[in-house]
Amino acid sequence: MNPRTTGLGSDGGCGQLTMWLRLIDTMPKRGRRTLAQWQDRHQQIINLLKAEGALSITALAERFDCSPATIRRDIAILQPQMTELKKYHGVVAVDGAVTERHYQDKVTESQAEKEHIAEAVCGIIADGSVVGLNGGTTTMAVAREIVGTNKQVTVVTNAINVAFELSHSDVTVVVIGGVLRTFNFETTGLMAVHNLESLHLDWVILGANGIHPVFGVSTVSEPEAAIGAAFARHADQVMVVVDHTKLGHQALHRMLGWTDVSALASDVAASPVIAGWRPGLPLELYHQTGLANVWRVMPS
């Protein structure tokens, strides 16, 4: 009797049969394991995601020595059972973890705090500086503050929306090119990294998805981590700009370690958290506006 064509009545048994068949379909051709073993792997996937927040499909496949296609099927089976399980651009996460989102989904979050951070940042950038800006809502706030205060700087960016914002001013703008990620308006890839190699920056201002006292500065996207690191390599000073909601979080990909960072700018709500990171992390208050602070990373 063919199990794929046999009905199990109207008592919901067909749903159970479908689940069994989908589980069987995940088994590699090189050899079948027992159903209990596959259920154990699914539980391990759930445990890993709850512990680490987010993992790429590729990373999960490497962990379990299987193909990315197998992991995608596993996730498809698990998602109806776990509504908090989400998949974003090749990354699987438990809802609430640091994951990649569309730019427009973030523009209204902590908006006032980002404006305060931008004001503090522009207060220490001297006229005549060459300033790098990556993409993001906080760096966009910095771009708007540059325009609003008529800052006399040259800006190098990989974000086309940042470049467009700056086009309304007398600021000289250099767009580094690369492959456009349309959902967040940033260019990345080998071309973008290569084009930075011939440039020198006085400052680079970098937004991030997470900042942690041990893990450092992180982002959910490997291409964005690579472009951020490339910006930092060609800058005399590296400033990370994040609002307080990013502190203590670790996204999937490290962009920079603390030895690569010169300064951290955040809103005043971050101060108690940063105070708790010291003295293990040598941060010294460098500039304050009353609503935002810039902390200098001191040599250890």
Task: Please render the helix and strand layout as text.
Elements (H helix, E strand, L loop, with lengths): L12 H13 L9 H18 L1 E3 H7 L4 H11 L6 E4 L2 E4 L16 H12 L7 E4 L3 H12 L5 E4 L2 H7 L5 E4 L3 E3 L4 E3 L1 H7 L4 E6 L3 E3 L3 E4 L2 H12 L1 E7 L11 E4 L6 E5 L3 H7 L5 E6 L3 E6 L3
How many helices in DSSP terms?
10
Mind telling me which CATH architecture of the largest domain this is? 3-Layer(aba) Sandwich
Strand tally: 16
**Secondary structure category:** alpha/beta
Span between termini: 71 Å
What do the pLDDT scores average to?
84
In total, the number of domains comes to 2
Please compute the radius of gyration using only Cα atoms: 23 Å
Quote the CATH topology of the largest domain: Rossmann fold
